[in-house]
Write a structure and sequence with these properties.
The complex is a heterodimer. Chain A is 81% helix and 1% strand. Chain A is mostly helical. Chain A has a single domain, classed as Sodium/glucose cotransporter (Up-down Bundle). The radius of gyration of chain B is 16 Å and the shape is elongated. Classes of the chains: A mainly alpha, B mainly alpha. At the A-B interface, α5, α9, α10 and α13 of A face α1 and α2 of B.
Chain lengths: 462, 70
């Protein structure tokens, strides 16, 4: 295993830094560094969007989520992603139209311009910072705990986390967004290949496709329908998750930026279809791996299950590729998010062109350090933490859509409502406010209330 | 109001997508404890939700063909 790991790892790191160096040579101004020249074609655009969207929680979190909650995991993620790519066709067009008229210095800057109110940008950036830093942290932590499980005698969690952050910072500071996009391309390919090999191995060891479902039906039939054995995947949870995931390209700047930097709108449309197809192909095998886990590792801890299914039950070369794939997945999602936050910060402050690039670079380092600290403190429930992050950023969805959609400034009402909604969601997560409003989940209630506020504001000011 | 054929087709596609989304969250798909009828050995909720997901992606493609480009 170690030999294969060194071979696969060396190839990966060498290609990574060669591409970062190549990207560095192509950087002529801050736009090349931060926006990759805004000229990304279909293939690179699709892979960078997919790799940024599908992170470690796809390969680590989803199998464990399916193992615990069953086949409803498909609706939770794959169906929601299909809704999301449909939304891109509508929202992406409007966003690009707005950007072509007003320019683009990050979503915070764009919102300040649309609302003619600086607080629109501040509220948006607060939401992004509060919910994306923990999301970056769980990527790092997810891989770190897996690596500790794989190499029990080597480094502790904090050392693995530090290594991931340092590699990520070096190549993204070196090559900018283009380097990140190249890394995404490698990670997306690796993720797809590895997850299918592991799923097929799992299925074969259970005696095949039909036999797998037959055994699950015998051992734990609740896994084969919703809401699953623990009752989590009920319609309300799935609707709230659907809305939260639907809003990801609207509210998360690393993905909004990828809609903007596509070469043209036609490429963006085709990219959306490709991402939808990729989502189905990458999530389906995680359900198989999860059902395998339900049969072979029903009572194991998360790390025991993942160590077993991804490493010990696989050939050495596949296990090595899984480790590198996870390392790459954590970095490709995290660096995109940190980079986007740096760009958002730059869009909020008014400094000269050279100064703004320095500010973005410094902000990226500071956000990375914040994520590193948080990664040492967070829990191991990757999917549920990721979902909180999606729901938290989704609170700003109505604010963003209203700003992009309306041709005149919408005043302070929606900004204030979004700020209150964000605050209420944070307080409900902290246990200060209840998790339910009557019989409705707090996140679902807030999303519906903010949507109504946006509709009311649009009608009144039309 | 613009009634171009492209716009009407787009509205039709959006309507179908919304209907599919609503159906997914009803007992037609989310049916507690229901495993049968199976298709290709897959339990009921899994194959129905996969089918709807595939249709949504196809609708995304069809919708993008009706939309404006740069």
């Amino acid at each position: 295993m170690l030999t294969w790991l060194l071979i696969v790892g060396s190839i990966y790191v060498t290609i990574l830094f060669l591409l970062a160096w190549r990207s560095r040579r192509m950087i002529r101004n801050h736009r090349d560094f931060l926006m990759a020249g805004s000229n990304i074609g279909l293939v690179l655009g699709f892979m960078t969007f997919a790799a940024t969207l599908f992170s470690t929680f796809t390969l680590l979190g989803m199998p464990d989520f399916s193992r615990t909650h069953g086949i409803g995991a498909w609706i939770f993620l794959a169906f929601s992603d299909a809704g999301m790519v449909f939304l891109i066709v509508w929202f992406g067009y409007l966003l690009r139209k707005r950007v072509s008229a007003k320019g683009f210095n990050g979503m915070s800057g764009l919102l300040q311009d649309c609302y003619r109110n600086r607080w629109a940008g501040y509220i948006y950036f607060s939401g992004v910072f509060i919910f994306l830093v923990p999301y970056v942290a769980i990527q790092i932590r997810g891989v770190a705990i897996f690596l500790v499980e794989a190499f029990t005698t080597t480094m502790p969690i904090w050392a693995w986390s530090l290594l991931i952050v340092v590699v990520m910072l070096v190549y993204s500071e070196l090559g900018g967004l283009k380097a990140i996009i190249y890394a995404d391309f490698m990670q997306g390919t690796l993720l797809m290949v590895v997850v299918w090999i592991i799923a097929i191995t799992c299925m074969k060891s259970l005696g095949g496709w039909s036999e797998m479902f037959r055994q699950v039906e015998t051992v734990n039939p609740a896994l084969l329908s919703t809401p699953g054995p623990k009752g989590l995947l009920n319609s309300q949870f799935l609707i709230a998750s659907f809305l939260a995931i639907l809003m990801i390209p609207v509210t998360q700047p690393q993905l909004s930026t990828r809609l903007v930097i596509m070469k043209n709108t036609r490429s963006m449309y085709r990219m959306a279809v490709a991402v939808g197809t990729f989502a189905m192909l990458v999530i389906f095998p995680t359900i198989i791996i999860g059902l395998y886990g339900a049969l072979r590792y029903p009572d194991a801890s998360v790390s025991e299950f993942l160590g077993g299914v991804l490493l010990h039950d696989q050939a050495a070369v596949v296990g090595s590729a899984a480790i590198i794939g996870l390392f790459a997945a954590a970095m490709s999602t995290s660096d995109s998010q940190l980079f986007a936050m740096g760009n958002e910060f730059r869009g909020l402050i008014s400094v000269s062109e050279s100064g703004s690039l320095l500010a973005a670079r410094l902000a990226i380092i500071i956000f990375a350090l914040a994520a590193l600290v948080f990664s040492l403190l967070s829990s191991d429930q990757l999917v549920l933490l990721a979902r909180i992050s999606f729901a938290g950023t989704a609170m700003m969805g109505p604010l963003v859509i209203l700003g992009i959609l309306s041709s005149r400034p919408q005043g302070g009402f929606m900004i204030a409502a979004s700020g209150l909604g964000l605050m209420a969601f944070i307080l409900s997560q902290a246990g200060v406010l209840p998790e339910m409003v009557g019989t409705v989940r707090m996140d679902l209630f807030l999303m519906m209330a903010l949507t109504l506020c946006a509709i009311a504001s649009y009608i009144v000011r039309r | 109001m613009n009634n171009r054929p492209g716009n009407i087709t787009w509205l039709l596609i959006v309507t179908i997508a919304l209907v599919l989304v609503v159906i997914t969250f009803t007992p037609l798909v989310l049916s507690p404890g229901r495993i049968y009828p199976k298709v290709l050995s897959m339990p009921y909720t899994l194959w129905t939700s996969i089918l709807i997901t595939v249709i949504l992606v196809v609708l995304t493609y069809a919708g993008s063909r009706t939309r404006n480009n740069d």
